[in-house]
Amino acid sequence: MSKLTSEEKIRAVKLYSNGKESKCETSRIIGVDRSLLRTWIKPYEYKEKSF
């Protein structure tokens, strides 16, 4: 697997956060480990809750 760009990571987080896909399913779709996806989601969720 090649390194994902920031835009691809954001797209993956948005795919998960829209509520249609689970972390497991999202990670399978983009081809990364679920724990890696979780590390991308945490800052996004923190930022959203702080506003």
Task: Give structural notes.
The protein has 51 residues and is mainly alpha-helical. The chain has three helices and no strands. The protein has helices spanning 6-17, 23-30, 34-49. Helix 1 (6-17) packs antiparallel against helix 2 (23-30), helix 1 crosses helix 3 and helix 2 packs across helix 3 (34-49). The termini are far apart. The model has no long low-confidence stretch (mean pLDDT 87).
Q: Any key phrases for this structure?
A:
about 70% helix, about 50 residues, mainly alpha
Summarize this, please?
Helix content is 71%, strand content 0%. With 51 residues, the protein is mainly α.
Protein topology:
Blueprint: H1 6-17, H2 23-30, H3 34-49
Helix pairs in contact: 1-2, 1-3, 2-3
Q: Please give the count of helices.
A: 3
Rg for CA atoms: 11 Å
Name the helicity range. Answer: over 70%
Q: Which residue ranges are poorly predicted, with pLDDT under 50 across at least 5 consecutive positions?
A: none
- Cα shape: globular
Reading the helices and strands in chain order gives HHH
Question: What class do helices, strands and sheet pairing give?
Answer: mainly alpha
Distance between the termini: 35 Å
Strand content: under 5%
Strand segment tally: 0
Mean pLDDT: 87
The largest pleated sheet is described as: none
